[in-house]
Write a structure and sequence with these properties.
The protein is of the alpha+beta class. It has 5 helices and 17 strands. The chain has 2 domains: 147 residues, Diaminopimelate Epimerase, Chain A, domain 1; 113 residues, Diaminopimelate Epimerase, Chain A, domain 1 (Roll), CATH 3.10.310. The chain starts with a strand and ends with a strand.
Length: 272
């Protein structure tokens, strides 16, 4: 069986994306495709579903109050280990560009994720490079701040759960501490610092089980933590490990995330 896939990169996170008529369990396929030695290689697999009846059924299963006629598409998101995630900030921007390039949606769009309905906008586009902004889900505080392993942690859900600690030097990033906390709290783990008007972030992601070059929901969790604990402004530049500059802004209780997305290539993937 051959599957037409597209590869996208959003600020250091790379994704393989394809269309399907309906929701299926693509966990095994995600592991194959995302394998960087035997597959295409990616941080995640995004499956785009535009079948209205499938979207309506998914809305009902998530107990959402929404008019599905206004939703352009739905997605299923898989981490590279085959596990599912409700939300992915960089993935949402990659999915938006895919939908626009494949005439699934206009420049302003709505789509359904496991975390709820996401708004996205193609702000600028030049061939296969675009600036895309997505509105993330409302942040939810999971616990009061606590100290563990010599760090002060905040715990927020920005579509997926994130632990956040602010440090003076990001070289203090400790992958063993991150790995242990990820297992204990079933959450991504972020080390952040704010210097020279830039929020810098390093993230250990569950599902990838390693540090990644970027994590959109992780940057958002660090942003919210910085606003509440350290009086950060409501608009900031943010730099993940990839070194790219992105932008986060907060408007009332909504968080918006903007940065570059590139369409790398299209191909056929042969699945035995």
């Amino acid at each position: 069986m051959s599957i037409k896939i597209s590869k996208y990169n959003a600020s250091g996170n790379d994704f393989v994306i394809f269309e399907s008529d309906s929701f299926h369990n693509y966990s095994n396929l995600a592991r194959k495709i995302c394998n960087r030695h035997k597959g295409i290689g990616a941080d995640g697999l995004i499956v785009i579903i535009k079948n209205k009846s499938e979207i309506s059924n998914k809305i009902s299963s998530l107990i959402l109050d929404s008019n599905d006629d206004k939703i352009d598409f739905a997605w299923d998101f898989y981490n590279s280990d085959g596990s599912k995630a409700d939300m992915c900030g960089n993935g949402s921007r990659a999915a938006a560009l895919f939908a626009y390039e494949n005439k699934i949606a206009n420049k302003n769009m709505k789509f359904l994720t496991g975390a709820g309905i996401i708004n996205a906008e193609i702000c600028e586009i030049n061939k296969h490079l675009a600036i895309v902004e997505s509105e993330l889900t409302k942040p939810v505080k999971k616990a009061e701040n606590f100290s563990e392993n010599g760090f002060l942690w905040s715990f927020y859900d920005t579509g997926v759960p994130h632990l956040v600690t602010f440090v003076k030097d990001l070289n203090d990033f400790n992958i063993e501490v991150a790995r242990n906390l990820r297992k204990k709290y079933n959450a991504n783990v972020n080390f952040a610092s704010f210097k020279d008007e830039i929020l810098r972030v390093r993230t250990y992601e569950r599902g990838v089980e390693d540090e990644t070059l970027a994590c959109g929901t992780g940057m958002a969790a660090c942003f919210i933590t910085g606003i509440i604990n350290f009086n950060l402004q409501n608009v900031v530049k943010v730099m993940p490990k990839s070194g790219e500059i992105l932008y986060l802004r907060k408007n009332d209780d909504k968080v918006f995330f903007k940065g570059a997305v590139s369409h790398s290539f299209d191909a056929l993937f042969y699945d035995e």
